[in-house]
Every structure is written in structure tokens, then in C-alpha cells.
Amino acid sequence: MSAAILQARGLSWGTGGVTIVNRVDFSVARGELVGVIGPNGAGKTTLLRLMAGILMPSAGDVELEGRSVPSMDPRSRARRIAFMTQDIAQVFPFTVMEIVLMGRYPHVARLRPETPEDHERARHMLSYVGMGPLEERTFNGLSGGERQLVLFAKALAQDTDVLLLDEPSSSLDIHHEDRVFSMAQELAREGRAVAASVHNLAVAAHYCSRLVLLEKGRVAREGPPELVLRSDILDRVYGTRTVVAPSLATGSLTVSVVPEGRQPRGTRVHLIGGAGSAVNLTRELTRRGCALSGGIAHEQDSDEKLWRSLGVPLRAVGAFARISDEEVQAASSLVEQADLTILCVFPVGVGNVGNLRLAARARRLLVLQPGPEEAPRVLLTPEARALFNEICSRAAVLPYEGILAAVQDAASG
Amino acid sequence: MPHHDAAVIRSRAPVFLIVSLVLVAAALLGVAVGAVPVPPTALVRLLLHRWGIGGVGAPERRDIVILLLLRLPRVVAAILVGSSLAVCGVVMQGLFRNPMASPEILGLSAGGSLGAVIAIASGLAAQAAFAIPGFTILGALVSATCIYLLSSTRGTTSLLYIVIAGLAMSSLFGGLTSALLLFSNQYQVSQFVFWTMGGLDGRGWQHILVSAPIVVPGIVVLGLFTRELNLFTLGEQEALALGMPVELTKRVLLAICAVVTGVAISVGGPIGFVGLLVPHLMRFLVGPDHRVLLPISALGGAAFLVICDLVGRVLAPPFEIRVGIITAVIGSPYLLGLIVRIQRRDAVRAR
Asked: Which of A160, A147, A168, A144 is nearest to A94 (CA)?
């Protein structure tokens, strides 16, 4: 990491006897986009305000290239550090352009009007954030998201080396959230130092080069997203059960919250799936409080991953391994204990025909029928076809809604 | 909220022209109208005669006395007081991001009045010409200090509480003013009305000579802080982030406001609603940018008070209705309307 431009050591601040930020070390270097994450009340906004020099630390110091920020002349400080707040309560009908021009304040000579360059910069930044067409509109009349983009433009108009953004996307849709963070990344690449507090951990993981996780005013962990976003530490800091997994679409980490393990209400359901065919039912039945079990799955299969992350008891064999009779035997206890067994829609071939044998042992079997817009069930071998027909003769073949209704009946009956 | 204001803001130059013309017309009428009719041209003739232009003959001697010693100082006093109160209203509304702030609502006027009455009751006013302005300034400064301390306590003091605190101070100081007047031996009904409602009758050059050298530079200095006032409307944290020394600026502006308001009150008494109403009307015409709003409010405040004074003089001759009563009659319904509008806007925003 290159040398930090803005660096805080032992930073503390409190109010009303409550310590909000507690001996925090924090730094941002040129070229970095640092994400400050943490639960509500962890001190993210306060930390950024301290870094910006608009709150005076009760202990510790913030230095901008060796100069103490709290003792800097406000004007020269504002030429180096910009702080973007989440929203402002503007009561007077200023236009969007007037608001953005206020960002030029530290650069405009006293008692002089803004120069054409100031106007140029403000206009440029407004179009950069996509708000150019709204420059004559009244700031108060904009939506929360539009106001946030205007405030972003104002911070950019300030033209500083350091940009501190307080939840810059809290009111934005996903498109504009992506825009704002892409722009923040771009600004970092230009050689500015950018730090942002972020609520959405997936966004933080996707865009930030480094994360700082705050917990009750202290740094709980710091480093690249892969090291900070770990379930063990997130679970403790956020007080919930999380699953961290790379996104299939972008490869960056996503963090999901596991539904609180509600006390299962009686009905035990065993799911026989594969290739992700059981994902929807798993989620819905977990939500409804069923006690699930699963298998026989293949390792690294998406059903298997989901079951493991949810703590669902399951049987699994190695990836692409053939399901042996011994495995069927071992898994049958799960099936026999279950009130209901559901056979999901997945292709059956030589390797996993054992799952049909397992289904045959169910106390009560429901066979999921593919919906009209879904691919039909694929049975690759004559053995699989014969076995499936035999199973169906003794089972209820139901569409998705029918399955859910049957589970409901079993629970109430 | 409709987006009509942008177009309105663009039409600033004509607004300046129109308001200036209204002021000039009102001033000429103010000089001409009264118990003894003096033609509006008399003042122009007098000026031309004095400067020796075009061989214009002097107006009648009686007219000259009425013009120079009675009506002109009264109009000039109205201009000074109107400008002062309107500009202080603009500054306080910007400073506290509150369209309901003004010297009278935040208690500066009542503080000034109390100061004046103390000067009278203690007998100091009879001894020194500067006692009344000195004490009105002091009274306004006491109020301003209270408001400053309230608004700078840690945490977010709600802007509504500042208004309520100002009203509370106004009531307290107003009550003390009434009590002092009732118990003082200089008690007269006219003085009671003057120091509770304000008026411009009997204002002469001696009042203007004392007040103008303070009020005019005061307004000019306030006019140097218009960009800072714009920043204040973003909120103090934002202003701080943009590099403005917020506390210092706030102290300076409030202190100047207290001095200007105090002097204005020493001339006209606590004339109400000018500082609230004029900034609003002007904001509606030119938009919220203080660099435009403050100078136009200085002109508008002057015109407004000259007109109100004129109305008071012509409404029920031979009696004069005090200008403070006229502004109150116009201003109170306006304040109520303003509250309704703000309520509606908040209701829209809350949706």
C-alpha cells in the first residue's frame, strides 16, 4: 500500500457520555477506495466526519500529509478534503446549479463572484453524475436519490484530493448505486483518495479495494474484502447468521443473511434434489418453518451448498461420484424419518439413479411436476424411466403450489 | 412543489428596477402627503433651487419647514428602519435556515425595547443622547447571545425550538417593558404604544444623525457575508465541510444584526413583521440567493415601511395610525398564511 494521504491515529469521539468512535486508526491513500462498513450505530458516519475535520476528536489526531486536520485553516482544509453528506434539509428553493456551485466556496476569492471556470466545473460535475438536465430545477423538488446525486456533484465540484462519502447510495436504485461507486472507483484511479461508508456489503466487496469493519466504535477487522467479509466475524458484529459466497454473475463476494432458525413446526420434509432443483423449495419451506433434510447431493452442487449454509442435515457424495447402494442405504434413515419426501425435477442418469431408489423408500412421497414454462424432467436411462414410472404410481405428482399445499396439510393434519 | 421559481429568479434586474421605482414614488408621496398638503414637486423644486439649477424659484417658506423638518426626516427614518429590519430578517432566516426567523420573532426587537425603556426609566435617556441607542443595542445583544447559546449547544437543536425560545424571550422582555413603563413617572400612553408597537411620528434629523452612521455601514457589512449565508442554508455541518468558520461567522453576523436592529429600534421602536414579511416577498420575486436577496430586501424593506407609514397617515385623518400597528395588521395574517404553507409543504414531503 502506498503512503496514506489522510491518516488518523487513536481517534476517539463521544457525546453524552457515550463513546461513538473509540481509539480508531484509519488511513486512506491515493488510488484507494476504502469502504467503511459496520452495523447501524457502529460509528461509520462519525468516523468520516472526524476524518473530514468537521468534528473535533476528543482524543487522537487526523493528519493530512503530516498536517493536523483539526487545527488546519477551514478554507485550506476544504480545498483538500470534501465530505458528502447523505442528505440536507434545505428549506429555501435554491436551484440544483446554485447548490453545486456552493461546492466551489473554498476556491472562490472573498467578495468575488464565481469565475466562468467555477461554473464550468460545476456544470461538468452535474453532467458527470447525470444530473445535467436538472440544473435549473429546484433542489427541494427532487427525489431523495436525485438530491443525493446533486450532493455528490457538489462534493466533486469541490475538487479535492480526498473524498469522504457518507453512504453515498443510501437513497439510490441499483443502477445509480453502481454509477456512484463506479465513479468513486474512477476518481480513486485518477489518484484521489476516496473513503465511503457503505451499508450494502456486496457493494462494498465489489467496489472497494479495502474494507474497514467497525464494531461499536472500534475497528473489528481491516483488509481486502476477502479477509474482512468472513461469516465468523460478520455473524458476531452484525449479530445474525450470514453466508458469504461469490456471486455467480460478478465473482465478487455477496453476503446474505440466513433466515433466523425458527423452531421447526413439526413437519419433517426430506428433499431429493440436484443441480439447484431444490433451491426454491428449500427457501420456501425454511421460511414456513419445516424441519428439512436433504440428499443425496453431490458436493459443490448448488443444492448441496445451500443446504450446508442453512445447516440442513444431509447426505452427500463427491462431485460427479456415482451414488452407490451403500449411500442409498445410509441416507434412507433421513427419508424414513421424514413425514414427507419431495422428489424435485433434475436430470437422472447413471450417476444419480440412486436418488430414485431412495425416493422409493419414502413414507409419503410427493413428486414435483415441472411447470408449463419449465424444462420437462429428463430421464436418461431405461432404468431411470422404469424406476420413475414405478415411483409415480405410488406417489402424488403435484405442481409447485400443490406441493406447498400438501406440506401445509401435513402440518395442520 | 411546483418548479416555477427558476424562471422567476431569472427576472432579477427588472425586480430591482421596479422596487427602486416604488421606493422613490413612496418617498415622494411620503413627503407630499399629510395634514398640510405640499405638492410632491415642492421637494424637487427645493433641491433644484438649492443647487441653483434652471433658475427654479424656492417653494413657500412654510412648505420648506414642513418638508425639511417634519416629513423628510420621517421618510428617511422609515427608509433606514425598514432596510435595517428587512436585512436583519434576511440574515437571521439564512443563519438559522428558518423562514420564520426575524429580529422580532427571535426576541431582538423586544430586547432592544426593554433596553430603551430601562434607559428612560433610569433617567439616563434625559442626560445623554446616546443613551437610548446604546441601551437598545445592549438589549438586542442580550437576546442575540441567548439565541446564539441555544443554537450552538451540542447536538441538533431543532430550529423550531429556536423560534419558540425567541417567542418566550419576546414575551418576557415585552412584559418587563410594559411593567417598567407602567411604573415609571414618565409614563405616557403614547410612549407605551411606541415601545411596544413602534412608530415613526416625530422622528427628526437628530435620530437620523445618530442612527445612520451605524446602520448604513452595518447593512453594508452584512452584505459582505451573503455567500456565507447561502452556505448556512445547507446546514452548519455542510458549511463547515466547505471551509467556512461557522461559529465565528455566526457570532459576527448575529452581533451585527443585534447592533443594526438595536439602532433601528431606537429610532422606530419595535416595529413588527418587516423583518419577517419583506424577505419572504423578495425571496418569492428573486429566489433564495442571498447575494441578490439581501440588497433587494434592503430596498424592499425601505419601500414597505415608507408605504405603511403613509397608509397610517392617510387612513383616518386627522388621526395617525402608528406604523407598527399597520405592519402588524398586514403581517399577522401573513405569518398565519406562512405557517399553513410550511405545514402543507412538510405534509407533502412526509408522504
From this structure: A147
For the ranges A36-45, A399-408, B76-85, the lowest mean pLDDT is seen at A399-408
Q: How confident is the model at residue A266 (pLDDT cuts 50, 70, 90)?
A: low
Q: What is the Cα–Cα distance from B77 to B81, expressed in whole angstroms? A: 6
Distances, alpha carbon B119 to alpha carbons A117, B127, B139, B201, B267, in Å: 54, 10, 11, 20, 14
DSSP, collapsed to helix, strand or coil, labels residue B346 as helix
Q: What is the CA radius of gyration of chain B?
A: 21
The strand ranges marked E within A76-184 are: 81-84, 162-166
Task: Give the long-range contacts of residues A126-132, CB within 8 A, separation 24 or more.
Answer: A126/A96, A126/A97, A126/A100, A126/A150, A126/A153, A128/A153, A128/A156, A128/A183, A129/A153, A129/A156, A129/A179, A129/A180, A129/A183, A130/A176, A130/A179, A131/A96
Q: Residues, chain B, total?
A: 351
Q: In chain A, which residues have their Cβ closer than 8 Å to the Cβ of B237?
A: 49, 54, 85
| Residue where the block lists cell 425567541 | B166
Q: How many CB atoms lie within 10 A of CB A350?
A: 12
A20, A48, A91, A108: best to mutate for the B interface, most B CBs within 10 A: A91
Grid cell 445474525 is found at A240
Task: Give the CA angle between residues A358, A364, A366 to the nearest 5°.
Answer: 80
CB of A16 closer than 8 Å to CB of A192: no
| Min distance B224 CA to chain A CA atoms (Å) | 7
Q: How far is CA B121 from the centre of its chain?
A: 25
Interface size A-B, in CB pairs within 8 Å, comes to 89
Residue among A243, A253, A251, A410 nearest A311 (CA): A243
Query: What SS3 state is found at A111?
Result: coil
User: pLDDT for B10-34, tens place per residue?
Assistant: 568 888 999 999 999 999 888 888 7
Q: Which residues pair with B206 in a beta bridge?
A: none
Residues of chain B found within 8 Å of residue A83, distances taken between Cβ atoms:
241
Tell which residue, A410, A380, A44, has the closest CA to residue A201: A44
